[in-house]
Design brief:
alpha+beta, Phosphorylase Kinase, domain 1, Aminoglycoside 3'-phosphotransferase, Chain: A, domain 2, 2 domains, 5-stranded antiparallel β-sheet, 3-stranded antiparallel β-sheet, 12 helices, about 50% helix, disordered N terminus
């Protein structure tokens, strides 16, 4: 067994322990001695360790390379178990429908997860930030993959729930959904106190109703929960693939495509006209609809499509604004690194401008006026 302790980045006791745990798991699974060599540090967030390794002695049932991820011992067991369940569920899908890596083995006690290696790839955030072209094609591929995942998992919530019960994971806990609920309650007061903006009753009612997309609806499908640019790989052989299912679960599919609309501009980092962004948003929604409509034919109606995506985008923009303004707490340090955690005033403003464009396209005068009022208040507050 090679632990490659001569590699500076992997010469820690923690890295050695991760590889040793992976060897034990794979040996137990295959019934044959497994060795791991050429270990490469892939980074990870916080104290999470993620490494790639080549299987030296390769039983026929294992891929040539694997990825091993270990969550810190103090991390939530529920969080780790939900990620295992999410990978179990997505691995059970037909090969062409799997949105991410295949689950190979796991150990709840050691918080170790072994998944297939997706090979040569780049983060979507890196692709969108590059000046080499192809960014719009990457966005369309992202949207199409989301739609394909949603169509493939629609109607299978009962299967996911069964896996949760087997792992003794609470089925109803949705951390991000709970954060949205808090934001829907808190933001009207925050806007009034900090920006002198009053939220119309019609918009407040729309946000309250949109919050229900996390709990019920006619478009329930699997979601990784954070399908933002930093959790998406653009692979050489398999196209777009999603990572990190720590809070994966079933919610209304419109939330994911709206999530893409809210987060992608921050990665592109280039000035464009309002018309450009609005048209690009429309193309992203249409690319998603082309796949999702196979599960939900009513999305073929343009007005229905835009209303549903607008409702989802409204709650995401409200959440990101509630996190930005004083007066609303966050559950756990994870939220500070979340894709919706706005890093700059410009990013927050861009999200409201995106909401405004979609509201205008859908003909929703109440949300249009609300977005215009907030944008004007933000500009005044920052003297832009």
């Amino acid at each position: 067994m090679s632990l490659l302790t001569d590699h500076p980045s992997l010469g820690t006791a923690q890295a050695v322990a991760v590889i040793a745990a992976a060897v034990r798991l794979l040996t137990k699974r295959t019934g044959a001695e497994v060795t791991l060599v050429e270990v490469e540090d892939l980074g990870g967030t916080g104290q999470t360790v993620v490494v790639r390794a080549r299987v030296g002695e390769n039983p026929f049932s294992l891929p040539r390379t694997i990825v091993v991820k270990q969550s810190p011992a103090h991390d939530s067991l529920e969080k780790f178990a939900r990620e295992v369940v999410s990978y179990q569920f997505t691995t059970s899908l037909a090969t062409g429908d799997r949105p991410g890596p295949e689950l190979l083995a796991w150990d709840l006690d050691e918080r170790v997860l072994i998944i297939s290696d997706l090979g040569e790839a780049a983060l979507m955030s890196q692709v969108l930030a590059s000046s080499s072209g192809g960014t719009e094609n990457a966005l369309m591929a992202w949207a199409q993959r989301l739609g394909r995942m949603h169509a493939a998992t629609a109607g299978r919530e009962i299967d996911f729930a069964a896996l949760l019960r087997r792992a003794k994971v609470p089925p109803s806990r949705d951390v991000i959904g709970q954060q949205v609920q808090g934001a829907v309650l808190a933001l009207p007061k925050q806007l009034r106190e900090h920006l002198s903006v009053d939220v119309p009753d019609e918009v407040r009612s729309a946000a309250t109703k949109a919050r229900e997309l996390f709990d019920k609806g006619t478009m329930r499908a699997f979601s990784p929960a954070d399908p933002g640019p930093d959790n998406i790989l653009l692979t050489a052989d398999q196209g777009v693939r999603f990572l990190d299912y720590e809070w994966g679960g079933f919610r209304d599919a419109a939330l994911d495509i709206a999530y893409a609309l809210v987060t992608y501009r921050g990665s592109m980092r280039k000035e464009q006209s309002k018309e450009y962004w609005s048209q690009l948003d429309q193309r992203i929604v249409q690319a998603w609809r082309a796949e999702a409509v196979t599960a939900w034919p009513f999305l073929a109606d343009e007005a229905t499509l835009l209303r549903r995506v607008l409702a989802a985008e409204l709650v995401w923009v409200w959440l990101t604004t509630a996190w930005w303004l004083p007066g609303h707490g966050r559950e756990g340090a994870w939220s500070h690194g979340h894709a919706l955690s706005t890093p700059t005033p410009q990013a927050l403003l861009a999200r409201w401008e995106g909401l405004l464009g979609l509201a205008e396209a859908s003909g929703d005068s109440a949300v249009t006026e609300h977005a215009e009022t907030v944008i004007a208040a933000l500009r005044a507050a920052w003297r832009w």
